[in-house]
Hints:
This protein is an alpha+beta fold. It has helices spanning about 10-35, 45-60, 60-65, 70-90, 200-215, 225-255, 270, 290-305, 305-315, 360-370, 385-390, and strands spanning about 1-5, 105-110, 115, 120-125, 130-135, 145-150, 155-160, 175-180, 185-190, 195, 260-265, 280, 285-290, 320-325, 350, 360. It has two domains: about 1-160, no CATH class; about 175-325, no CATH class. It has a five-stranded mixed sheet. A four-stranded antiparallel sheet has the order 1-7-6-2. β6 and β7 (about 155-160) form a beta hairpin. α6 packs across α9 (about 305-315).
Amino acid sequence: MSRFRLYPTPAQQAALLEQCRHARCVWNLALEQWSMWTRDKRRTPGYVEQARQLTEARAAFDWLRAGSQTVQQQALRDFDQAVKNFYAGTHQRPTWRKARWHEGFRIVGVQAGRVEQVNRRWTRVLVPKVGWVRFRRTRAAPVAKSYRVTRDRAGRWHLAFAVVPESIPAPKTGEVVGVDRGVTVSAALSTGELLTCPGLSEREQERLKHLQRRLDRCRRGTKRRQRVKLAIAKLHARAGDRRKDWVEKTSTDLARRFDVIRVEDLRIAHMTSRPKPKPDPERPGRYLPNRRRAKAGLNRGILANGWGALVRRLEQKAPGRVEKVNPAYTSQTCSVCGHCAPENRENQAVFRCVACGHKANADVNAAVNIAAGRAVSARRETPARVLSKREPQPATSA
C-alpha cells in the first residue's frame, strides 16, 4: 500500500462521508443476509444476486441512488472476497462495520487511474460523486488499478493505492542478525544496538490522562463529549504515526544491512488476549483475582512497541530472508557457554551466567541466541547437555 494524506474541502468531506455511509450500509446488509443462513435453509445469495438486489434498491430509494454505484458494488465485491477468505482459513469472520470506526470505501477500475499532478507539492485524484480531491505529493504517485479512501478516528482522510512494493535487495555480505523484542527495549539486536519505539512524551501523557478524566465526567451524547473524544483520538493517532514511522525506518535499515534476519516466533494475538476468569470454588458465582489489570498493562506495552508490525514489514521488504526461531528459554541461556538456568537472569536488564560468569545486557544476550538459532526444549536442556547424554558414560567402580 502506498498511502497519502487527503485534504478535502468541507463540502467534499460531507460527500465523502456520504459515500462511506453507503458502502457501510451495503456491507452490513450483505453480512445480514449471510449471517441468517442455517443448514435447513437454501444457499444465501452471492455477489451476482446481491448486485441485482442493489440495482432494485437504487431504483426504490433516492438516498441510495444519489451515491456512487461503483462504490456500492465494490462494497459487495469486498464482502464476497472476505467470505471466501474466511472459508479458506486465511482471515477471520467478517464483522459489522460501525460508524466513526470503519469509515472508508474502495474504487476499482478506470476511475482509479485518474490522478493528476497540480504542482510540485500537490496532486489530485478523481473520486466518484465527489470530484477532484487534493493530496500531498510526498513522493511520486504510483500507477494502480484501485485505491481506498479512509477516515481515521482523528478525522484525517487518507488515500491508499493498492500496489505491491518492491523488495529491498540483500547486501550479500553474509551477515546474520537476531532481533529480540521487548517492552522496555522495543528491539535489541545481536550487534548490541538497543532500539526504542517512540511514543507519547510525558507532557502528552499527562494531557491524555487529563482528557480521559474529563471524558468520564462528560454526559453521553453531548457535543462536549464528542470534542473530548476527538482530542483523545488525535493523541492516539499521533502515537500511532510515530510507531509506524519507527517500524518503517527500522525494517528498512535491517533489510539493507543484513542478509538473514532472525526473530522469535511469537503468537502476539494469544499473548495480548485477556486473562480468563477464575471461579471461586468456595463461593459459587464469585471469582478469584486473575491480575487482569497487570495483564492489561502488559498488553498495552506489547502493542505500543509494534512487535507484529515490525516482523510483518520485514517479511514484506526482505521476503525469504526472515527466519523465525523457537523462543523457548532464549532469555535464560548463556550465549557463550550455552548454560540455561533461571538464575542467569538477574533482572530485566542484566544477564549473568552462573556457570561461566559471562555478563551482558539481557536483551542483547537473547538476541545473540536468536541470531544463532539457539533454543532449548521444554525440559531446559542446553545443546551441551543433550550432546553429553548421547556420549557413552564411563563405567563407575563399585
